[in-house]
Amino acid sequence: MAMTIAEIADLYLTDKRRTRRESTVEGYASALRLHVLPRWGGMALEEIDPDSVQDWVASFELPGAAEKAYKTLRQVIRWAIRRLGLRVYDPTTAGIELPRKPAYHPQVLDASQARDYLRGLWGCEAEAAAICSLTLGLRRGESCALTWGDVNLKTGEVRVSKSRQDVRSGTVVVPPKTDRSDRSLWLPSFALRRLRQLAKGRRKSDLVCPLSPTATARRIRSWCRSHGLPHVSMTNLRHSWATIAIEAGVGIETVAMMLGHTEIGTAYEHYIVPRKSVCVQAQRAWAAHLQRSA
Fold it and tell me: How far is it, in rounded angstroms, from Cα 187 to Cα 155?
């Protein structure tokens, strides 16, 4: 009797738990539970055809959910064909068309708002994590995994070598997202001065922020609301750092390196907001060059 997609999914998750971070596997399991198994769980792989997959994809109201569900189904099927040696046709390869996602325009802080944000967070329990997020362009899990031992209070070097993630069982510490995410960064002098103050009386093994990543984000949000401060998510603090860096004239290669991206294009596609100031500065340089060539 042929295996069902539900049976294959169980084997797939068991295999992925050996090689993937717990938080990553939870994402796979969530997509399977919410989207894939309700539609395909009781079916054998041989019973799925491309037209049915296309109709299923088109039934989603949200393009992002459609893409995530489809990619999860495709990943499970390809894993089964490769790892289980199934001699079947892959129904997810026949030109399935995903709905077009709207362009993503992240909300970011400008330089003035960033100054107000950092000044206004003085005294907040999550201040140190917020400083590291905004001034280093860290992922939320990276800033929440920092200990005071990771911060060299003499030189300003910050070792980013792990990430803290919230999962169903609690909070776990996992390796960085990519090889390039394991990196050293250096704090601007004003941020280093403030962290020296915050580090007094702390042990090197203490977390920079003792709250969980989710609780850290919530604490920052509630503090900003109660103090009338500009606020963006911790993910968009990362976007903010990248955009302000580009405005300041930092090259895209350096931005990508500091963000810990494997490819430069990732920084351009996801983290750079085309602000007027950047475009105007580029046009001034272009026009000046044109005039010099006359």
Answer: 9
Do the Cβ atoms of 22 and 173 come closer than 8 Å?
no
- In terms of C-beta distances under 8 Å and separation of at least 24 residues, what long-range contacts does 188-193 make, across chains too? 188/135, 188/156, 189/156, 191/118, 191/131, 191/132, 191/135, 191/156, 192/153, 192/156
pTM: 0.75
Structure tokens at 80: 């089964």
Average pLDDT along the chain:
89
Looking only at the bridges linking them, the beta strands covering 183-186 and 157-160 are antiparallel
**Distance separating alpha carbons of residues 279 and 78, to the nearest angstrom:** 44
Question: Do strands 157-160 and 163-167 pair parallel, antiparallel, or not at all (unpaired)?
Answer: unpaired
Does residue 83 register a pLDDT over 80?
Answer: yes
Of the candidates 130, 134, 190, 180, the one whose C-alpha atom is nearest the C-alpha of residue 160 is: 180
Structure tokens at 195: 């962290």
